[in-house]
Amino acid sequence: MKKFSELALVAVAGFAVIGAGCAKKKVAVATPPTPAPAAQAPAPREAPPARPRPRPVQQAAAPERPRVPDAATKARIDELLAKIEDAYFDYDKHTLRPDAITALQSDSSELRDILKDYPNYKLTIEGHCDERGSAEYNMALGDQRARAAKDYLTQVGIPSDQLSLVSYGKEHPVCEDHDEACWQKNRRIHIIAQNSN
After folding, report:
1. Which of 11, 70, 164, 187 has a Cα-to-Cα distance from 59 of 20 to 30 A?
2. Per-residue pLDDT averaged across 76-84, rounded?
């Protein structure tokens, strides 16, 4: 009997093990971590009282350069223009002759140095012709002569925008005789100062 009871015990124990193996297992449910307490935004700091900004130091503005010459400088320009002789041209030509270049060179560098300081001061180059040929032809020829002089003067450094052109053709002769000596005097360019403020 003792054996029977031992056997019974082993059987009961085996059933217990088998029963324990078949029993539903409890799945451990992971509990979410407890949220950390919300960080509170720091209380807004009060802005420090506004300090008055230092005012920028105002520098004395440089005096604006005059854009036109004063009376003494205008007088000097007029003297230079009077010294610059008219440049003369051959019959029916608009190219500068050597004597015309010499006439334009006379004091043109000083004139250039003065004009570059006064950008609003302008000169006019007049183109003239003798009485021969039609009015239309001479107007075009006078313009070509004035352009040739302007091209030369800009090459020596006088600003182009300070030189304007006008052609009078045969309308403003300096001599009214009807011979070559007189006609030569009328085939010319003449430079004048414009009235500018």
Report:
1. 70
2. 82
Percentages helix, strand, coil for the chain, rounded to the nearest 5?
A: 40, 10, 50
Average confidence (pLDDT) over 137-158: 95
Distance CA 160, CA 124 (A): 11
Contact 187, 96 (CB under 8 A): no
Return the CATH number at 82: 3.30.1330.60
Domain that holds residue 113: 71-193
Strands 188-193 vs 163-169: parallel, antiparallel or unpaired: unpaired
Cα gap 130→180, rounded to integer Å: 9
Closest among 149, 182, 176, 179 to 164, alpha carbons compared: 149
Q: Look at residue 128 in the predicted model and tell me its pLDDT.
A: 97
Tracing tokens 């799945």 back to the chain, one arrives at 27
- What is the percent of the chain with per-residue pLDDT over 70, rounded to a whole number? 65
For residue 8, the Cα-to-chain-centroid distance in whole angstroms is 113
**Residue 40 token pair:** 């509170």
Q: Please state at what angle helix 108-115 crosses helix 71-83, rounded to 10 degrees.
A: 150
Distance CA 42, CA 44 (A): 6
Q: How far is CA 37 from the centre of its chain?
A: 63
**Is residue 46 in some structural domain?**
no
Q: Is residue 144 part of a domain?
A: yes
- Total domain count, the chain: 1
Q: What is the pLDDT of residues 159-170, one digit of tens each?
A: 999 999 999 999
